[in-house]
Design brief:
This protein is 43% helix and 13% strand. It has 507 residues and is of the alpha/beta class. The strands form three sheets. An eight-stranded parallel β-sheet has the order 3-2-1-4-5-8-9-16, sandwiched between helices. Strand 2, helix 2 and strand 3 form a beta-alpha-beta unit. Helix 1 runs parallel beside helix 2, helix 5 packs across helix 14 and helix 13 crosses helix 16.
């Protein structure tokens, strides 16, 4: 294993040229937000960064990018028009969270695939030194192959979940159990990890078209020059090393990327551009938090895609009221969700002065950093997990679909920075809207009270936050990984290596 390179050694008289890089995410906030942070992170280290977005997401994410460019960083957005009509998609939807129902997910996926020739044409017209592509966009790994541009896959989740998913697809231990609730051991991992079929991602369920998914996974592995992961050594070092070992490709753990946002406008408007309404909502939420004691508020948000049925929304609301805690509750932005003013009136009646309801969007990174926030009820999407880790806030894990139960297993079972809310079964995306009550009001109230009172949990989460911040500082594992990737781009035939500070010391 060669030693990890830095961008320029202390003996250099001049730094080497830094690369021109494209960053292209799947068009939905859970993917586009961390990719935007990633592009700004690499631009802050001297790269010439172009963030490729659909027009709708370009409008949402443009503010921080424009400020970074005004501050002298070489960064810009290139907006692509989503070929929606060619895919049979109407309504002007350019982001997955804007889809009114899951029936449109198929046409939306076709439209996203139709971006492939547009992206290839962009690469031919404006060649770059590297592409960092979303792992769920395999066509980005093979666009314009004649240019020979190295491609790095941004995984979208952590190496623990990736390792679990890979093991399930390769070894299929889930096929050998008699029921959905019978635990089984996931083979080949550094730790004993047990799951049930009820907690698996759709692609790994018996009867799913898992062979096609596995073939796509291997195709991405062959095409990529390495993995770019929004993670850091102290969160999942064994799995960063493990994933690099089993795939034979370097892993660059550069997170938490949300820490590229300071305490100013970038954090306050993250994900909502310069919208006046978003700025007003951010100010309203933070002003409300300013009135609450330290660590007394539970923040509740299930991301941009989860859509609970009304009966589960009601149980959640009653449980929050029964807990006696202060809470900020972000409710879904879809048309089937209760209207925020109506829900706020219910909250005011059940928990006067203790609850704030937010419709659709909140300045999540700013909220998690606020001193009043003591716990985070989350679906365990990877962005939310890393944002909680960066803020040092304990997690109350309520997974819903995809790899979210794997993330719960990491946070609750291995990192010890969270507790489970009690969700025992997952859904195909969209199925949660018909799932009934998964966690009742008594469980919600009990777990919220317990998490806010658990000093050991708070201490472990706080320590993780300190480690996250040290990871991105000069000399930290994530800081070094950014430098290593920049040099790897300029030397496109590296030997396999794992980029974490500790593994480098042992190399």
């Amino acid at each position: 294993m060669r030693p990890s390179p830095s961008v320029a050694s202390s003996g250099d008289t001049a730094p080497p040229p830094l690369p021109r890089m494209y960053f292209i995410p799947f068009p939905t906030p859970g993917h586009a937000l961390p990719m935007s942070d990633l592009a700004r992170l690499f631009a802050s280290r001297g790269a010439d960064a172009t963030l490729v977005l659909t027009r709708g997401n370009a409008a949402r994410l443009g503010g921080p990018v424009a400020r970074a460019a005004a501050a002298g960083l070489r960064i810009r957005i290139h907006a692509l028009a989503l070929p929606a009509e060619a895919a049979g998609l109407t309504g002007g939807h350019e982001s997955a969270d804007d889809l009114p129902n899951r029936e449109l997910a198929g046409p939306f996926a076709i439209a996203v695939d139709l971006l492939a020739p547009l992206f290839a044409d962009l690469l031919r017209r404006r060649p770059a030194d590297a592409v960092v592509f979303d792992g769920v966009l395999p066509w980005a790994a093979t666009a314009a192959p004649e240019l020979g541009i190295p491609r790095y896959a941004f995984t979208g989740t952590g190496c623990f979940a990736l390792s679990v998913q890979r093991a399930l697809l390769l070894h299929t231990p889930q096929d050998g159990v008699a029921s959905d609730t019978e635990p089984f051991l996931v083979p080949g991992l550094p730790d004993p990890v047990r799951l049930t079929k009820s907690r698996l991602a759709e692609a790994t369920l018996p009867g799913a078209d898992s062979r096609e998914f596995l073939n796509r996974m291997f195709a991405v592995e062959r095409a990529t020059a390495g993995w770019v992961v929004n993670s850091f050594a102290d969160l999942e070092e064994k799995y960063i090393e493990h994933y690099g070992r089993v795939t034979g490709k370097p892993v660059f753990a550069v997170g938490p990327v949300c820490l590229v946002n300071g305490d100013g406008d970038d954090t306050l408007e993250r994900g909502r551009g310069g919208e006046a309404a978003a700025a007003a909502e951010a100010a309203r939420v933070l002003a409300w938090l300013d009135t609450k004691p330290a660590r007394s508020v539970v923040y509740v948000c299930f991301g941009s895609l989860t859509r609970f049925p009304r009966e589960q929304v009601a149980e959640l609301g009653m449980g929050l009221a029964d807990s006696g805690a202060n809470f900020v509750w972000v409710v879904g932005g879809d048309k089937s969700a209760p209207a925020a003013p109506v829900l706020q009136a219910d909250v005011d009646a059940a928990a006067p002065g203790r609850g704030l309801v937010v419709r659709g969007w909140a300045p999540q990174v700013a909220v998690l950093r606020h001193a009043a926030v003591g716990a985070f009820v989350t679906h365990c999407g990877w962005g939310a997990v890393t944002e909680a880790a960066a803020a040092g806030v304990p997690v109350l894990a309520w997974p819903v679909f995809a790899e979210q139960f794997y993330n719960e297993a990491l946070v609750v079972g291995l990192a010890g920075t969270g507790v489970a809310m009690g969700a025992e079964r997952g859904y195909v995306w969209g199925g949660e809207a018909m799932g009934g009550v998964v966690v009742g009001r008594e469980a919600v109230a009990e777990r919220v009270r317990g998490a806010l009172a658990d000093k050991a949990l708070r201490r472990r989460a706080g320590e993780m936050g300190e480690r996250a911040r040290r990871a991105v500082e000069v000399g930290g594992s994530s800081y070094e990984a950014v430098g290593a990737l920049l040099q790897d781009v300029l030397r496109p035939t590296p030997e396999p290596m794992i980029i974490t500070s500790r593994s480098e010391e042992r190399a």
